[in-house]
Amino acid sequence: MMERNGLVHDDVISIIFTTSIDLTSPFRHLRARDRLGDIPLLCASEINVPGAMAKCIESCCTPTRPSAWRVRHVYLRNAQSLRDDLPG
After folding, report:
1. 10 backbone dihedrals φ, ψ, rounded to 5°
2. pLDDT tier, 80 (very low <50, low <70, confident <90, very high otherwise)
3. Confidence class of residue 37 from pLDDT cuts 50, 70 and 90?
4. Residues paired with 61 in a beta bridge
5. Which end of the chain is more exposed for a tag (fewer CB within 10 A), N or C?
6. Contact 56, 78 (CB under 8 A)
7. Residue 38 CA to chain centroid, in angstroms?
8. Which of 37, 44, 30, 29 is nearest to 8 (CA)?
């Protein structure tokens, strides 16, 4: 997401990650921590919704500059179906 949007470390204030409840690793954020260093990260689980997409990770970052608020979203595999209102 950062590469696609031209963001670098100093452009990001914080990042929130949410995961579907079937992803149960106790330290889901460690790979991001290794890559992003001192950017504050928060990890949470989505609520259990019957029929929700499995094995899903979502992230949201808080950028430091106004031009970065127009984020180009990144969807892998079947995740595009989460936002069928957006062009593919």
Report:
1. -70, -5
2. low
3. confident
4. 15
5. C
6. no
7. 17
8. 37
Which amino acid belongs to residue 81?
S
CA atoms of 40 and 32, how far apart (whole Å) = 10
- Distance separating alpha carbons of residues 52 and 72, to the nearest angstrom: 23
Handedness of CA 7, 27, 17, 73 (dihedral sign): positive
For residue 32, give the H/E element and its range: helix 30-36
Q: Provide, for the chain, the percentages of residues in helix, strand and coil under a 3-state DSSP scheme, each rounded to the nearest 5.
A: 25, 25, 55
Contact 18, 47 (CB under 8 A): no
The answer, yes or no, to whether residue 60 has pLDDT greater than 70, is yes
